[in-house]
Amino acid sequence: MLVWERPEPPDRPMPAPLSRERIVQAAIQLADADGLDAVSLRKVAAALDVGPMRLYGYIATKEELLDLMVDAVYAEIRPTGDGWREVLRSLAEATRQVAHQHEWLADLIGGRPQLGPNTLASGDAVLAAMGGVDLDTVVPAVAAVNAYVIGAVRREITERRAERVSGMDKQQWQATFGPYLQRTFATGRFPALATVVHDGPHLDADQTFWTGLDFLLDGIEARISS
Questions:
Q1: Is 140 within 8 Å of 69 (Cβ atoms)?
Q2: By percentage, how much of the chain surpasses pLDDT 70?
């Protein structure tokens, strides 16, 4: 029986009462502070001041715990809006905001579909907003937006982590490696790339995200209207 369907143990008088919600929230706090490497059933039990064996009545494996963590933060992703385009933009914005708040989420999304109730509710809201669109368009369109958002979020989180590890923000990194690129481009070996670097737009993270999303939504709209 999957964790979503498996009942919790009955309440018992204990110095430290437990529930799946308390366990998951403790795990999220650990992950928010120090990443997924800080999450284990033993560390969560220590944070709750209980023995590790008590957790196994609620959660059988670390994989179940990670699934519950993902679904818990998906409670914050509730796409809204009038029409499919607004709802897909809302989905993208909410997913990005949650991933920025919980960086570890970027490491856990993008594989097999999550099956928790909050995740299913988010997906259902998106599909309901596209009720008037042919299913042959709906399925790849939603998949394309999800793929774009996951890729963009992972890129942004990777940049954040690189800044922390290197001690250099994006501007400092560019200043450090700029002379190398100038020397390389001066050889004439990469003319197209040199033109983009010299003359192309230099968008910040927000502009890059929303511009790319609009390109994608414009393509979906064109397909729907054709």
A1: no
A2: 97
- Give 13's DSSP letter: -
pTM for the structure as a whole: 0.86
Pseudo-torsion of CA 54, 60, 63, 67, nearest 10°?
Answer: -80
Using a CB cutoff of 8 Å and minimum separation of 24, what contacts does 24-27 make? 24/65, 24/68, 24/69, 24/72, 25/72, 27/65, 27/68, 27/69
203: alpha, beta or left, given left = phi > 0 and alpha = psi -120 to 50?
beta
Per-residue model confidence as pLDDT tens digits over 31-41 = 999 999 999 99
Query: Which residue type, as a one-letter code, is found at position 47?
Result: A
Distances (CA, A) of 16 to 77, 92, 129: 31, 39, 44
Q: Is the dihedral of CA 206, 208, 211, 217 positive or negative?
A: negative
Alpha-carbon dihedral sign for residues 140, 145, 146, 148: positive
Predicted confidence band of residue 220 (pLDDT cuts 50, 70, 90) = very high
Spatial distance between the Cα atoms of 91 and 215, rounded to a whole number of angstroms: 16
For the stretch 179-219, pLDDT in tens is 888 999 999 999 999 998 888 888 889 999 999 999 999 99
Instruction: Please answer whether residues 24 and 72 qualify as being in contact, where contact means their C-beta atoms are separated by less than 8 angstroms.
Output: yes
Question: Two tokens at 159?
Answer: 């940049």
CA nearest to 124, candidates 150, 87, 85, 151: 87
